[in-house]
Amino acid sequence: MSGIGRASSLIAAGTIVSRLTGFVRSIVLVSAVGATTGAGNAFATANQLPNNIYAIISTGLLTAVIVPQIVKSAGHDDGGRAFISKLFTLGTVVLLVTATLATIAAPWLVQLYAPHYPPAQQALATSFAYWCLPQILFYGLYAMVGEALNARRVFGPFTWAPIVNNLVSITGFTFFIIVFGQSGAVSDWTPTMVALMGATATAGIVVQAGILFLFWRRTGLHVRPDFRWHGVGLAQIGRLAGWTFLMVLAGQLAGLVQAQVLSAAAEEYPGVMVTQNAWLLFMLPYSIIVLSIGTPYFTQLSEHAHAGRDDDVRADIGRSIRTLGLFIVIATAALAVAAVPASRIFTDSVAEAQAAAGVLLCFLVALVPLAVLFVIQRTFYAYDDTRTPFAFTLVQCALVVVTALAAQAWLPVEQLAAGLALGQSLASVVQVVIATWLLQRRLGGLRIGSWMLALGRFVLAALPAAAAGWLTYVLLGGAEGWTVSSKLLGALGAAIIGTVSLAVYIGFLALLRVPELAPALALARRLLPGRRG
């Protein structure tokens, strides 16, 4: 197997294991704080804050300056040692200052993101936030060191380190359950309980970053603090990040509005915790399929775009959308009919699972469109165009805000999470339509009808597959059966339903003589562990 092939396999395997251990982490977390409780939502809000802030910082600093410059600096006479010392010093200072200021501002940040929480719940979320917001520094260190390792072709640690983070969290949350049991009521929480939960969450990120330093010697670089930042490229931030930074900022602002609206579901009904876990389920097939299948196509597409071979780019677009579509359509159908057992994995009762399943179903509306958007958006990137993606993403963000405010005005609190998810999905559908239209105007000859026809055939085969999956769910007892009786059995039930749906799907694709089936099966076989190709 080639070096690239080995690296791809290593990254893909690490991502899958990371996702699976992340699932276990979420299961244990729900067992500790509950899915629809005041404490569960308070923790979910606080632990999301460092991610939101880091997303903005990473795009403005890491993506704009540090990551590209790490790669370029390899050609310097000293192998990039002096330059990377400056970059790392700059990045660490920015991250440290940001983490410090964010931690000081914890009460205001919680109030900003969760204005409808009762005072006691806001106070608990603030206590969690004091422990969680320092994660910003360690997220950044992980990204900087990881990118340096990747630039020196040391791929494994960056991909596998999050698994250790998950294991640390699983251990800490399990210890919490052993000592305190499930504590969902806000009034139950003591400073010791808050410290254990918050320290566990942050310790996982610290270890995730720390592990990468163990592999630093492989880069051959000797980094020292260097505060002489002249020549690092600060003046180029606007040119390098520009539209991408604004796109992330718009997305974060839209997410802020969603969080504010969703904070009205402070407890009892699906709120922040349920929404995050539904999104985790939604992203599982998307991330695995895009990583394993979409990324190689994008690499080929980028090469053709840079060579000016537009006809090949058009062919790449259609081929990649058809291939992704074949897998994503059945993933959507299978996850839809298994929504209740799958949601039971992250909930404490059948009633909670049914409510959470509604949120998942609303997210699933956008699964196929987002797979198409992956190809369309990255085609613009292949032509070094980030302004156009900003334009259609801005429309999507505006629609997310409008639908969130509409949900707040018209929906009861128990349906807020589902309403926000549906609004986000509809906004994504509009986004991909606009993006495709703009790409058609730029390149022309995309033959949209041909890959839309292919997607239609996949959907036609997915209908009986979904029916078979639903019948399996009913025969296994439905909402009163064993597939929803516990978290573990929920996972097993969802796997059985998904397997039945997949088998029927393949059968109907063969019956319809879908031309994409044979190459898709060959591709899937090559991606299996132990296969070479």
UniProtKB/TrEMBL annotation:
Keyword annotations of the record: Cell membrane, Cell shape, Membrane, Peptidoglycan synthesis, Transmembrane, Transmembrane helix
TM region positions: 12-33, 53-71, 83-108, 128-146, 158-181, 193-216, 237-259, 279-299, 324-343, 355-376, 388-411, 417-439, 451-476, 488-512
InterPro entries: Lipid_II_flippase_MurJ/MviN (IPR051050), MurJ (IPR004268)
Main location: membrane
Transmembrane helix found in the keyword field: yes
Superkingdom per UniProt: Bacteria
Protein name, entry field: Murein biosynthesis integral membrane protein MurJ
A Pfam family: MurJ
Topology relative to the membrane: Multi-pass membrane protein
